[in-house]
Design brief:
heterodimer, A: Nucleotidyltransferase, domain 5, Substrate Binding Domain Of DNAk, Chain A, domain 1, 6-stranded mixed β-sheet, B: about 270 residues, Monooxygenase, 10 helices, ATP binding (chain A)
Chain lengths: ~575, ~270
């Protein structure tokens, strides 16, 4: 199922050449959240958020399928929140994109008020909207693309120029495969991705700009500041540690997981209606409506619990099913205890990875929709011994503003006041390696490696006269390959016949500053000064959906005949 | 010579490897520092990706050395000599035409940061100097420039990152210094020193049995103390060109740093 080489990449490269001749187009920044999204652009002197025709800077991320023409949250005029829950509206696509139907996140999405069906066979789930009582199948990429088209039209109308280049923010925990799905959605919408930025690193760039501006005003320049960024939205939770000085931000460590407001919401729904799973098993019109009503009521309750200590939940789900209950804040925190603990451990892990002590952190930045939840704010500040969070960054606009600044910097725009005199040095989010030594993942580039990076390891054959070897590239932190995401594979052929352990098979991984991964493989025989076969260079990822199947099929077909082991240096 | 010499753009960083507590034989982690051949021209890789696969048949492995030698003294772009202020610093970037120079492997990591080749680098501003370089060399800042210069940026930037990471911690700095003097530390070598073996067994037990953070913190401070002592031993040994002693110190330091990583993970 390796994909032909037509992807977004080649598409993008050609347009890169076109634009260099004319005035550089400023790339816009887009933050597509699980629940909300926004667009911003560098207007020549500062970042400006673009508004839709209803004067909103922050729009809901959803697409409603009606008759032939789907419409999204940018343009459509929602009469009532409940329209969103008729079964025709698809949302939470950021939680579903690039996932197979065995993924627990997909399973947890089955109570969304549209169809998410899983058959647990390792392919993409069946996602569909109910249009005129017929299930209209779609994919997260398609929904995202429809939405991006609307965002693009909105931006073009306002900026009065065609939009092509974008910087998009993405969750830290996205695999490279998921990133290709986002790129695919952008390509479908006619957009060229200049950069996919992990969300907290966009915030880090904005923070770097603030520090730079502050040092211009004061005499206190050059001193390095370490900041921790905690970003929790509806779908994902991300942490970054950044060290910034003189406009240069070095990302020291990143950590992320699939925990967000959606999980808090689901926990509350099953808390108030424990048998909701069985009640809503059938996705009929009635059930969808009930699920939708419950969702809206709980969402509202959680929002209100941020400012009130207890709220009244009063909702009629139909069919004589009513929920009438007072929920207090402690109850909410108790129900979601595990999630909050996970957030804490994510922060601690990130600090450890960055080799930074709590005392070294000058600023703690809390952003994202969940930053309004008192418990979230408290759990972060508690780790930092009650330190007041950083002010001066809008928690809902930080990521998109950072993306817009990156868009300007990456488009080569200069600012006479030095406001774009910035640089973010990124780090990798997940380890990348190849399968070797049996079923093990041998990481070549560990996570939190500064980019650009290039590392190589020498492997060798496992059989006498083995002339071919399979290079299976994985991403993830698991020790065994099956715990990780397969990114792609290729075969090297023409290894000179020799006893096992003799040929030196050099595998090299290269990640450039734009996070493009290339894997190079070559063979050298001991004593020779030249590669025995031409070096093969492959851009990753190469796999499409169903990667689990590929790995299994390869194993079935070839067994261990094309295996590799790491070459031990001789004493 | 291995293929890595051809492929290599930068030296590798010691990889994180976990201490295998269950194995009776204790091995030190591989740290694949490859020998850098000064003035050997590394092929640059062109990042035009019109497809996934590209054979490198047309790539010349070592034919451009002449061009390389020239460029180490003059700017490849504007032919200017480094300015007075630049000639004191390594010539990675031409101030006259704001142009990134090709990697010159004869410039070592210490020289990149304008440091004397010394183990005790008291310089607290290593990170600052590193960031100053990145502001000139990072590929993100040369989008609009030629493919050639973008390739130079990728290589220079990556090399400065490696230089910074190598010099930042005493252990990797020590290994690198030995390497500059032609001494390879074989970290895969099985430990044969009975004293160290006994010590390792003891620490291993301690860490395994430690249940509370107090004990773990105590072990951690012990390790830090040992690290400091052996670090001093290394510095003295290196100073007096006693490379055997220096290697032994590195071996010990590698081990202690591994224990510290394990303890931190457990904390």
């Amino acid at each position: 199922m390796a994909e032909p080489a037509y992807t977004v990449a080649s598409d993008s490269e050609t347009t890169g050449e076109e634009k260099s001749s004319t005035f550089p187009e400023i790339a816009i920044g887009i933050d597509i959240g699980t629940s909300q999204c926004s667009v911003a652009v560098w207007n020549g002197s500062q970042v400006e958020l673009l508004k839709n025709t209803r004067n909103q800077k922050i729009m809901r991320s959803y697409v409603t399928f009606k008759e032939d023409i789907p419409s999204g949250g940018v343009s459509s005029q929602l009469l009532h929140e409940h329209d969103l829950l008729s079964g025709a509206t698809i949302f939470n696509m950021k939680r579903l994109i690039g996932r197979v139907d065995t993924d627990p996140v997909v399973h947890a999405s089955k109570n969304l008020p549209f169809l998410v069906q899983t058959l647990d066979i390792g392919v993409r789930p069946f996602i569909a909207a109910l249009v005129n009582n017929v299930w209209r199948s779609t994919t997260p990429e398609e929904v995202l693309a429809i939405f991006l088209v609307e965002l693009r039209a909105m931006a073009e109308a306002q900026l009065k120029r065609p939009i092509r280049n974008v910087v998009l923010t993405v969750p830290v925990s996205f695999s490279r495969f998921q990133l290709t799905r986002v790129e695919r959605a952008c390509a479908m919408a006619g957009l060229h991705v200049l950069r996919l930025m992990p969300e907290p690193t966009a915030v880090a760039l904005l923070y770097g700009q603030h520090q730079q501006q502050a040092s211009h005003d004061n005499t206190d320049s050059g001193s390095e500041k370490v900041a921790l960024i905690f970003n929790m939205g509806a779908g994902y939770c991300d942490v970054a540690v950044t060290a910034t000085a003189g406009g240069v931000s070095q990302i020291k460590a990143l950590a992320g997981c699939t925990i967000g407001g959606e999980d808090l919401l689901q926990n509350m729904m099953s808390h108030l209606l424990p048998d909701s799973q069985s009640l809503f098993k059938n996705h009929g019109v009635k059930e969808i409506k009930s699920m939708g009503l419950l969702r809206v009521a709980m969402q509202d309750a959680i929002h209100r619990l941020s400012s009130e200590t207890n709220v009244q939940v009063d909702v009629d789900l139909g069919d004589g099913l009513k929920i009438c209950k007072v929920v207090d804040r402690e109850e909410f925190e108790e129900v979601n205890k595990n999630l909050f603990e996970k957030c804490e451990s994510l922060i601690i892990q990130c600090l450890q990875d960055a080799k930074v002590e709590v005392e070294d952190v000058s600023d703690v930045i809390i952003v994202g929709g969940c930053s309004f939840i008192p418990k979230v704010k408290n759990l972060v500040t508690n780790i930092f011994k009650g330190k007041e969070p950083y002010k001066g960054i809008n928690p809902l606009e930080a990521a998109v503003c950072g993306a817009a600044v990156e868009g300007a910097v990456a488009s080569g725009i200069n600012d006479p006041f030095g406001n774009l005199d910035l640089l973010t040095i990124q780090a990798t989010t997940l380890a990348i390696g190849i399968r070797a030594n049996g079923n093990n993942l041998v990481p070549l580039i560990p996570r939190n490696t500064t980019m650009p990076a290039r590392k190589d390891v020498v492997f060798t054959t496992t059989h006498d006269n083995q002339t071919e070897a399979l290079i299976l590239v994985y991403e993830g932190e698991g020790k065994k390959v099956e715990e990780n995401q397969l990114l792609g594979y290729f075969k090297i052929t023409g290894i000179p016949t020799a006893p096992k352990g003799v040929p030196e098979i050099n595998v090299c991984m290269d990640i450039d500053a734009a996070n493009v991964l290339r894997v190079l493989a070559g063979v050298v025989m001991p004593g020779s000064r030249q590669p025995a076969i031409p070096v093969m260079e492959v851009r990753m990822p190469t796999v499409d959906d169903g990667h689990g199947w590929c790995a299994e099929a390869l194993n079935r077909t070839y067994g261990a005949t094309l295996d590799l082991v790491t070459l031990q240096k001789k004493a | 010579m291995t293929l890595s010499n051809f492929l290599r753009r930068t030296t590798s960083i010691p990889q994180n490897s976990t201490l295998n507590f269950s194995s009776p034989q204790i091995k030190l982690s591989p740290s694949p520092f490859e020998t850098q051949i000064p003035n050997f021209h590394k092929p640059t890789f062109h990042y035009n990706s019109l497809g996934f696969l590209r054979f490198s048949g047309e790539r010349s492995w070592c034919s451009k050395s002449a061009e390389k030698l020239q460029s180490s003294s003059r700017c490849w772009n504007c032919d200017a000599f480094p300015t007075a202020s630049e000639s004191a610093a390594p010539f990675l970037f031409c101030e006259s035409c704001q142009c990134i120079q090709p990697v010159d492997y004869s410039i070592d990591y210490f020289q990149i940061f304008g440091l004397e080749k010394k183990y005790d680098i008291e310089d607290k501003n290593l990170e600052g100097k590193y960031k100053d370089w990145q502001k000139k060399l990072h590929p993100d800042l040369v989008h609009s420039k030629s493919q050639k210069e973008r390739d130079f940026a990728a290589e220079q930037s990556a090399r400065v990152i490696d230089a910074y990471r190598t010099l930042r911690t005493p252990l990797s700095r020590g290994i690198y210094m030995l390497k500059l003097d032609g001494v390879e530390v074989d970290e895969e070598k099985t430990i044969s020193d009975p004293d160290l073996l006994a010590e390792i067994m003891e620490i291993r037990e301690e860490v395994e049995e430690a249940t509370n953070s107090e004990t773990l913190n105590y072990i951690l401070s012990q390790m830090q103390e040992k690290m400091k002592n052996w670090s001093t031993t290394f510095a003295d040994a290196f100073q007096s060109q006693n490379f055997e002693e220096a290697k032994t110190s590195i071996q010990r330091m590698t081990y202690y740093s591994r224990v510290m990583e394990e303890v931190v993970k457990k904390l």
